[in-house]
Design brief:
The chain is α/β, with parallel strands linked by helices. It is 39% helix and 18% strand. It has a five-stranded parallel β-sheet with strand order 5-6-4-7-10, sandwiched between helices. A three-stranded antiparallel β-sheet has the order 1-2-3, with no helix packed on it.
């Protein structure tokens, strides 16, 4: 909605963004919008993203928290193009929700490197990502006992992804911070994430 030109009605994804102003290349019109950072809470399957997000919702209303899996449930998810389309929709929905004056955080495990490449990434001054990590054995216990997962291939893929986050700080063009939640309660994890968001917002003097 915010990307539709109010003068000529051009709804194509062809706008330029400079600061908090959108420019229509079709008619030359420009209009102001609320430009806020986009936040991603990442980590491998089973690490505790959803548990942490649910606790965040109970502790603050300073930003909106949404589950990236919602697109997996309603959109195709077979090809790289499918996953890129999902990444685009995260940006598209977020830029509109942010017009209420609050940033948006998504829980999202994979395809983080696609986010900076999307058309909609231009509507955010920055995309911040925090990956939750934990001890390998703890992760296995969480997946087997906490979620009832018996697929060893799935468990091992999560272990490998968790290891990647622990040993890297970037995936493609998407940089990320990490925080080890081993031994931490959901409340402690939520408080950390809330402070992490606040710190990023201060960088933008917001």
């Amino acid at each position: 909605m915010i990307g539709i030109c109010p003068k000529c009605g051009n709804y194509q994804w062809d706008k330029e963004v400079k600061g908090n102003e959108i420019f229509c290349l079709k008619c030359g019109n420009s209009w102001k919008f609320t430009r806020l950072p986009l936040f991603i809470l990442s980590g491998c399957s089973g690490v505790g993203k959803t548990t942490t997000a649910m606790e965040i919702i109970r502790r603050t209303t300073e930003f909106t928290v949404l589950d990236g899996d919602m697109f997996y449930s309603i959109m195709p998810h077979e090809t790289d193009e499918d996953y890129f389309d999902q990444a685009e929709q995260i940006g598209s929905l977020s830029k509109n929700l942010m017009q209420a004056g609050k940033p948006v955080m998504w829980t999202k495990a994979g395809n983080l490197d696609m986010l900076p490449k999307t058309y909609n990434s231009r509507f955010f001054p920055a995309i911040y990502c925090l990956a939750l990590v934990c001890d390998e054995e703890l992760l296995r216990v969480r997946m087997r006992n906490g979620r009832g997962i018996t697929d060893e291939g799935w468990i091992q893929s999560s272990v490998d992804y968790n290891h990647y986050f622990k040993t890297h700080h970037q995936l493609g063009d998407m940089a990320f911070d990490t925080w080890d939640i081993s031994g931490k309660t959901p409340a402690e994890a939520a408080d950390y994430v809330i402070q992490w968001v606040a710190g990023a917002m201060r960088l933008h003097k917001l």
